[in-house]
Every structure is written in structure tokens, then in C-alpha cells.
Amino acid sequence: MGQSSSAEQVSPEQREAESIAASIGALPNLQKAFSVLSDPQTHSIPLHSLQKYFGFSIEESTNEESTVPKEFPVLLSHLSSSIVDLFFLSEKGGISWVEFLKGYIKCSGRTVSSASLNNLLRLFGMISVKAGLPEKLQVVSDEDDSKISGFLLPVDVQMLLSMCWIMWWDSKKLKTSSSLGDSGLPDVTHLVLSAIDSCAEADKKLDLWENNNFDLDIQLPAAKIIMWALKTVPSLADCFGQFIHARLFYVAAHEEKLDQADLFSHDISAKEMSIGHLLNSGRAWAISLTLRGSLSDEISKACFPSAAEEVDDYLLYRSSLHGKGLNRFWSNVEGYNGPLLILISAHEANNDSRRWIIGVLIHQGLENHDTFYGTSGSLYSISPVFHVFTPSGKEKNFVYSHLHATVKYEAHPKPVGLAFGGSSGNERIFVDEDFAKVTVRHHACDKTYHHGPLYPDQGFLPVEASVIDVEVLGLGGKRARDIQSSYKKREELFTEQRRKVDLKTFGNWEDSPEKMMMDMISDPNAVRREDR
């Protein structure tokens, strides 16, 4: 079981490893997993046994239109052996209890994000060499926190991201007891273009509108890729750690030899799933990699086929379905007190071919205000290039949502529409009342969100674009949707009550002011006695 019978037999190295594993709550399950995987005679795990439980079969794509590189299935076939060789040191053909603990801590323990990304690139480099691809990454030293030098090509970044997706998907599948279907490989073009845009040398920049071919000789330095990942997709390296954690904990929960033929398989030719018209699994996954906690979990549910059966639980509004305009929008989102993801698809007025998608994540429901409000949020450039713009901390003009005033007269009415960032009259993003136009301004006007272009080649001047579609997804879970349903039922009840007229509340017609006015109009010269 990985435990010594006497405290004197425990080495300082083992005590330290067990202490770290216990601090993250993993020690009991690791003991169970070691008991299942180890050989009772040698008290160690055979290499082939651990490799077996880190591997899975890949069903290759037969679709001629598939964008999956032909080397990708070969690459994945070496994943399990590379994990064991790189992180789990063996002694005499087996892995001891201490090395098993240390290997888990290297992969899934608490560490800084840069170290996790270095481990991920080390793993990808070893897999690539075993698959017969040219060696592009070099390890500077043999230390656990060693730096990586070298470069990756765009097609390598595509395969790295696809590998991370499969490991992430696998961990989610095991966590949900295998109730999820296969979702195929998502389109990661927006992430690859983001890496190229951020890491390529100035003279190697691509036309991000036209060029989606990744078979290009553009060298992206490893150090810049790590910096890009830390800024854009900080949770990317967690995909590997979650994969190791989920596999070992699944073994611990099933203390018998497992038949993983179906459980550990992945069909890379399956069709990419979508929860909305604008949010497919690749875009949802990219957004989830910028977040942590419950928000990341809620968005990631859009990446699975089962989520398609629960669209009504997430999709609050879609302009192509519910109709364009602020009033239609408001009738669907009012009363939802939870985080919201708003997606806007548009194109420049004179260039229909250049379509882009931007997004806004706000951490609270919308309110009818004539000033900016909000507690936190993020802006996203989603397509064709993915970037995230988190709060800068300088201002809190996160969101502006204002309908027509219904009570008081305003000499200088505030603009009606939706806005995000910037200031009144100088918003970074402003959607008009009819949802026909969206105005995007340069980031210089905005102190709420970090700087950066919301779409490729964005200039300094404001751009007015034509809105194609708007989608809103609620990320507050079932409780937020139930509260909104109760709110809508209450509003419907109030509306119905206001429609009913109780005649008993009115006085006699003969004594009413209305009758007196009618009499005066019919015969204004008639002599009437004034009641005293």
C-alpha cells in the first residue's frame, strides 16, 4: 500500500513526498492506486502497467476535409511512454512508492504556472522525438524546473493544443463517470493564430484574415510561447496535471484490473460540438482556459455533446432566434443574477468578408442604469484571433446597459444601448438600441480593461460595424436560472393584475369629472349651478 510498517524505516525523502501529497489531499487515493498497479512480489509498479493506464487508443480521421495533421495520431501513441520516462523514475524495471509519489507531484502538484508549462513543453518535445519528428526543443538543464529553449512551428502549436484538449477532455470524462460522448477535436485555429501573432518576429507576421495554413516555416521561440500561454491561456498546463490526476484517481476508485478499451479511446474525426451559433467547443475551451473555478466549469460544459441537450439551461438570448433589439434582449436576460457571457458577431460596413467575433464576460447580471457599473469582467477577441483583456484595476466601467426612461423627462438623455469599457460617449464597445450597429474604439479610451486590438488590424479611429448576431449565455448554474424563472412568473402575475379593471373603484358617472368635461364640450354656454 506504499506505507512502511515502522516509522524508523521511513526515509526523509519518503516522508517529504508523503507530506506534500497529503497537503493536497491526494495521499489516500495514491496509496490505493499504488496498491492496484504494483506487483505484490517486488512492491513496485512495472513500467508497462503504468504506461497502460496513461495511454488510450486513437481513432484516426477518415474525413478528407479534416485539418488534423497526419503525424498527430503517431504523436499520441507515444504519450504514455513519454510521461513515464520523463516524470516517473524507475528502479530495476519498476517504480517504487517514493518515485511514484514524486512523479505525481511533478505532474499534478502545486507549482507555479511557468514550471508547469515547461514540463508540458518537455513532454511534447520528447513525444515529438519518439514520433520521428525533427527535434526543435532543447532542455537547458536536467533539473525539475529546467528551462526550455528552441522553437515550435505553427503546426506544432496546433498539435500541442490538440494534445492538451484530449488530456483535458479525458479528465472531464472520468470525472463525470464516463457519461459523456465523444466530441472530436475542436478547431483551434483562433488559438494558433493568437500564438503566431504574439510570438512571431515582426518580419514574419501573417495576414490573419486570409492565412489559416499552418504548414509554414515560421519559428515561434519556446520562451515566447510560454509568455503567450501565461497571458492568454494560463490554465493550459493544467490539462496535463488534471489528466494524470484523473487517471490515477480513477484507478484508485476501481481497485481491480480495468478494461479501458472504451473508456480511454478518442475519436479525433468526430464532429465539433456547439452550444450556440457563435460558441463552439473550440471557442468555449479557449475561454475556459482563461478562468478558474466554477466559471471555467460552466463554460467547459459547452465543449461536450451532452451540453447540446441542455442548451436552454445556458442560452438566454440569440438575436437570430429571439429577434434583434434591446427590448427583445432585455426581456430574455432580465432577472438573471449570475455571470453572463455576451458574444457579438459583426463585419465592417464595406467589407462583408471580414467577419469577427468579440465577447464580454461579466460576473453579475445586467441592470438598467444610465451610468457604468460592475464588479469584474473580461473582454475577448474570439475570432479570427483569440485574445483576452482582463481588468486593469484603474477604473470600473465594466458594463453599461440603459433602456429608455419610462418615468421622468430627461433634458439630456443618456445613450440607449449596451457598452463595455471606456466612458460615457467614448465607450470601447457600444451596441446600439436596434442591435444593428456596434462601435469599437481603440483601447486608448479605456482604463477598465487591458490594452489590445479586439480584431486584426484595428486602427486608432472608431469603427462602426454591422451586427450579424448576438448571443448571451448564463453561467450562474441551475440556481440562477431558477431565480430568473421565478422573477419572470412574478412579473407576469403583476402584469396580468394591472390589466384587470375593477369597476367598483370608480365612482358614479354622474359625479365624475369626465362627464362634466363631456357636458361642457357638448354645450359650453349652458348655465350650470355651482355646487356650494
From TrEMBL:
Alphabetical list of InterPro entries matching this protein: TLDc_dom
Annotated protein name in UniProt: TLDc domain-containing protein
Pfam families hit by this protein: TLD
Top-level taxon of the source organism: Eukaryota
TLDc domain residues: 289-476
PANTHER family, alphabetized: NUCLEOLAR PROTEIN 7/ESTROGEN RECEPTOR COACTIVATOR-RELATED, TLD-DOMAIN CONTAINING NUCLEOLAR PROTEIN
